[in-house]
Amino acid sequence: MQKTLKEIAELIDGEVVGNGDTIITGVSGIKEAGEGDITFLANPKYFSLIEKTHASAIVTSPDVETAAKPIVRTENPSLAFAKIVSTFAPSQVKHPQGIHPTAIIGEDVTLGSDIAIGPYVVIEDEVSIGDKTIIYSGCFIGQHTKIGADTLVYPNVSIRERSTIGSRVIIHSGTVIGSDGFGFATIDGLHHKIPQIGTVEIGDDVEIGANVTIDRARFDKTVIGKGTKIDNLVQIAHNVLIGENSIIVAQVGISGSTTIGKNVILAGQVGVVGHITIGDNAIVMAQSGVSKSVPAQTTVWGYPAKPEKIAKQINACVHNLPRLYNTITELKKRIKELESKLKDK
């Protein structure tokens, strides 16, 4: 496939600066790109690569006014480039089709039109699955579960009983939805299991990474809001409520009965205690430990997490500890010398 730069600009609603007749035959990263490729640049710290790349054209933000080679300026270079990639390199994944004869389907199961169920899938009684949903091999769908339309469930996913999954949801391999919440009562040194009789509800347009665990509620439900994206290896405990369009990055752990607002970002390896609230549009930076509620529109960092500005000041002081230690040691030595001289007098 080949397109002119002008045609690509029309595809992404961008503005060409330079030769719009430049022929584009492929897509690549800015460091790997060669002649004929188009690439993109979204992060200002990499602007110096504009002059070094071998790409024939670059998708940039409006901050770039001109360059040594043709550019296409657009408000969101990353999203625009995703559209270009889909045009030049459409997905080669071949999804299952139809219902495989080894699939085990229970009684009173409602299956929508054009669905696909792969080998060795187990679907228990009274499950409902919407139109055009695809379930790969080795998945388990528990009783009374509801799955919406156009949802994609990759291999070896377990969805326990009475869970609700929305439409256009993507669930990657190894994920477990609706496992028991971690609840025990300790009496005389023995841990007695507390029944977890709630459910899990996943909203529309959610994507859940590989090996994620989302526990069912003790009562009521654990909720993942519409449009939220969850990375690999995340643990979400019982009765957690996550608002719409939040981002939960790899290795995050959220303790029970915590409420996460809308458009929240929890960066990698964040740990959150239970029974607190993180407000809308808050950002928790990587490896932070959140021990108390975080107000909306706030960025926090550190362990325990503090407002970003305060955390950075504390971190700067910590880095200065060796110098401060040497200074104090020298001052103690000089004080001792002065005290000795005063005593001699």
List keywords for this structure.
Udp-n-acetylmuramoylalanyl-d-glutamate--2,6- Diaminopimelate Ligase, Chain: A, domain 1; 16% helix; 345 residues; alpha/beta; 4 helices; ten-stranded parallel β-sheet; single chain; eleven-stranded mixed β-sheet; 3 domains; UDP N-Acetylglucosamine Acyltransferase, domain 1
Q: What Rg, in angstroms, do the CA atoms define?
A: 27 Å
Shape: flat
What would CATH call the homologous superfamily of the largest domain? Hexapeptide repeat proteins
Q: What characterizes the major β-sheet?
A: 11 strands, mixed
- Look at the structure and give the mean pLDDT: 95
Poorly predicted parts? none
Separation, N- and C-terminal Cα atoms: 94 Å
> Per CATH, which architecture of the largest domain?
3 Solenoid
